[in-house]
Amino acid sequence: EPEVTQTPSHQVTQMGQEVILRCVPISNHLYFYWYRQILGQKVEFLVSFYNNEISEKSEIFDDQFSVERPDGSNFTLKIRSTKLEDSAMYFCASSETEPYSNQPQHFGDGTRLSIL
Amino acid sequence: QKEVEQNSGPLSVPEGAIASLNCTYSDRVSQSFFWYRQYSGKSPELIMSIYSNGDKEDGRFTAQLNKASQYVSLLIRDSQPSDSATYLCAVIDSSASKIIFGSGTRLSIRP
Asked: Minimal CA–CA distance to B108: which of B19, B11, B9?
């Protein structure tokens, strides 16, 4: 079964450094998402992306965050200047069509980001 | 602020019994509902989706939806120790392209 893949599985970064998290969505999917989950807390929406632009973003997704689809397969999340509170699991997800069409979102295994 | 509410548990159920997980949501016009299972340290895994009022069965899982009461539930029959996980209720935000997750119910199946 096709799956969403994320790299790296664990990223350790010094506070203030830039970090890029990578995702390869399922190949025929058109909508891409990033979520995060701080340890012990709920999964929170960050951003959705379609047709090479952001469709929706949450209040968490401030100017320190950016997303990009640099080629036909990768989808990246960049955090420009990391803070301690950015430590979390970051999940990439994709769906075949827009979310309100009832298509579920399929999640990757996540990247654990640890900021020191 | 649209909310999805779940009892955090833990819910402890003996092996072989039925586990019943409940969820309420605040957005009256939501149309799409999902149950995800999340093992500790792992990603959410889709186990059920439901869009119409009533019951939807898939193997040992049954999802139930009542839009009038803004309530969705998940029944797990013949519970197995491998069902021990956190179950996340998720609702599509009808005005935006995102899922709103509940905080999850931790289920423990005791042998």
From this structure: B11
Could you give the angle at the alpha carbon of B6 between the alpha carbons of B2 and B9, nearest 5°?
Answer: 155
User: What distance in Å separates residue B93's CA from the closest CA in chain A?
Assistant: 8
Q: Kindly report, residue by residue over B23-42, the tens digit of the pLDDT.
A: 999 988 888 899 999 999 89
Nearest chain A alpha carbon to B102: A42
Sequence-ordered list of residues with C-beta below 8 angstroms from that of A53, at least 6 positions apart, any chain: none
User: In chain A, which stretches have pLDDT less than 50?
Assistant: none
- Interface residue B40 vs chain A (CB under 8 A): no
Give the Cα separation of A4 and A77 in Å (integer).
15
Instruction: Quote the minimal CA–CA distance from B40 to chain A in Å.
Output: 10
Cα–Cα distance for residue pair A25/A2, rounded to 1 Å: 9
Neighbours of B88 (CB within 10 A): 27
Residue A36: count other Cβ atoms within 10 Å of its Cβ. Answer: 24
Cβ(A71)–Cβ(A65) under 8 Å? Answer: no
